[in-house]
Design goal:
The chain contains ten helices and no strands. By secondary structure, it is mainly α. It folds into two domains: about 60 residues, Orthogonal Bundle (Arc Repressor Mutant, subunit A); about 120 residues, Tetracycline Repressor, domain 2. The chain starts with a helix and ends in a 7-residue tail after the last helix.
C-alpha cells in the first residue's frame, strides 16, 4: 500500500471517531479502527494534529457529494432526482458539521489558529466547492431544460439556496425532503390557491 493509500485509509477510519470525540480521540483508537498498529499512523502523519487536519480536509472536500449527485440517473423523475441530491447534500453537510463541530467543541480549531492547514476552509475554497456542487445539481435539471422557467444553472442555484436555509423546527414540524422538493417544483399554494 502506498503512503497516499495508507493516509486515505487512516483518515477514513479516523473520521467517525473525530466526529464523535473531537480532539480527544487517541491515535490508539484510530489504529484499532483502521486495523493497524499505532506506529503505522506516524509513518504517514507527523503527529496527531496533522491527522486531525487531514480529517478536516477530507470532511470538507466536495468530490464525494459531487460524485453522489452525478451518479443519480437522469431518467428518474425530476422530483426523485432532486430528493436524492438533497439527501446526499444533507449527509455531506452533516458529516462536515460533525467533524468541524466536534473539533471546535474540544478546542482543536481554536488552538490551531494560524496553522493554515488546520483552519476552517477559506472563502475561495468554499466558493469552489459550491461551484462544483452547483454544476452537478444543474446536470440534474438538464433533461427538463425546455420546460424550466429558469436555466438549469439558475434552477440549481435556487434549489441549493432553499436547501441551505432548510428550517429546523423540531421533531414534529421538521420539513421532509419530499416537502421541500414539492414546494420548490410546484410552489407554496395548494390546488385551490
Amino acid at each position: 500500500m502506498s503512503p497516499e493509500e495508507r493516509r486515505a485509509m487512516i483518515v477514513a477510519a479516523a473520521l467517525p471517531l473525530v466526529a464523535e470525540y473531537g480532539a480527544a480521540v487517541t491515535t490508539k483508537q484510530v489504529a484499532l479502527a483502521a486495523g493497524i498498529g499505532e506506529a503505522t499512523i506516524f509513518r504517514v502523519f507527523e503527529d496527531k494534529d496533522e491527522l486531525l487536519a487531514a480529517c478536516v480536509a477530507e470532511a470538507v472536500r466536495p468530490d464525494h457529494v459531487v460524485r453522489e449527485i452525478s451518479s443519480i440517473p437522469l431518467d428518474l423523475p425530476l422530483a426523485e432526482r432532486l430528493g436524492d441530491a438533497a439527501d446526499a447534500l444533507a449527509a455531506h453537510l452533516q458529516r462536515m458539521g460533525a467533524v468541524i463541530g466536534s473539533l471546535h467543541t474540544t478546542g482543536q480549531l481554536r488552538r490551531s489558529r494560524g496553522a493554515a492547514d488546520q483552519e476552517p476552509p477559506k472563502a475561495d475554497d468554499r466558493a469552489e466547492s459550491m461551484r462544483q456542487i452547483r454544476e452537478a445539481m444543474a446536470e440534474l435539471f438538464e433533461p427538463e431544460r425546455e420546460s424550466l422557467r429558469l436555466s438549469p444553472e439558475k434552477s440549481a442555484a435556487m434549489f441549493l439556496g432553499l436547501l441551505f436555509v432548510r428550517p429546523r423546527m423540531g421533531d414534529s414540524a421538521s420539513l421532509e425532503t419530499t416537502e421541500i422538493v414539492d414546494v420548490f417544483l410546484r410552489g407554496a399554494l395548494g390546488a385551490a390557491g
